[in-house]
């Protein structure tokens, strides 16, 4: 699956995947073959921060 380029769509897709399919961001990135640092940087640039405690970006 190709991830959306739009930050809001990316935020939505990643949080949906984290909620429905993955117990951690590491698990999502490994399974989807996504560079974790790039993903986190993209979402941080849009104002979102990952919470491991809640397993979501906000």
TrEMBL record:
Pfam family, one: DUF4250
UniProt cross-references to InterPro entries, sorted A to Z: DUF4250
Protein name as catalogued: DUF4250 domain-containing protein
Organism: Bacteroides xylanisolvens XB1A
